[in-house]
Design a protein that fits this description.
- The protein has one domain: Rossmann fold (3-Layer(aba) Sandwich).
- Helix content is 37%, strand content 18%.
- It is built from six helices and five strands.
- Strands 3-2-1-4-5 form a five-stranded parallel β-sheet, sandwiched between helices.
- It starts with a helix and ends in a 7-residue tail after the last strand.
């Protein structure tokens, strides 16, 4: 693991408002390391960025020919029917810069994930996705839609991480 990633996991993430724990970030990094060992390539994506706590890690884990995409409602919080976060694009961009992420490989999409298609994602990426984090809306129909979207663009050997799996709210 490179020093920048290690530094972020040990304490950098704490400076960003969010819910991902150090353990979760270590698990994501372990999944990434397995994908590297097995030469699984592809872009990385997160639905439900909030302030970028996990997106920063994904950006740091992205490799030279990979794109990291963050999708959030951002300024359209009126569509956030279950109040599952409050994404702020300016804060996310600042957090990416403060953590030395390669901004040229990060794309932020302000959209309701229910309105996105696999073509929308693939047109913003150079390839399919090896890692997909779902932390957007928490209603059954939104989660189901996000899972179908992730499945439609997932690379062989890709992983979908579902946040709040055991949260019964």
């Amino acid at each position: 693991m490179n020093n920048q990633i290690n530094k972020y996991i040990l304490k950098g993430y704490k400076k960003i408002e969010g819910w991902y724990s150090q353990d979760a970030l270590e698990i994501i990094t372990a999944i990434n390391n397995i994908q590297v060992i097995h030469d699984i390539n592809g872009s990385l994506c997160e639905i439900g960025v909030h302030h970028g706590r996990s997106l920063v890690l994904l950006a740091l884990l992205s490799r030279e020919n990979e794109i990291c995409i963050g999708i959030d409602l951002f300024e359209n919080q009126n569509q956030n029917i279950d109040n599952s976060g409050c994404g702020d694009e300016e804060v996310v961009q600042l957090n990416l810069k403060l953590n030395n992420c390669d901004i040229n490989r990060v794309k932020l999409i302000s959209s309701n994930s229910l309105n996105l298609t696999s073509n929308d994602l693939l047109n913003n990426s150079s390839n399919k996705f090896r890692f997909f984090s779902l932390d957007g809306g928490h209603s059954a129909n939104i989660v189901q839609s996000d899972l179908k979207l992730a499945e439609s663009v997932l690379e062989n050997g890709g992983v979908v991480l579902v946040d709040d799996y055991f949260d019964e709210k």
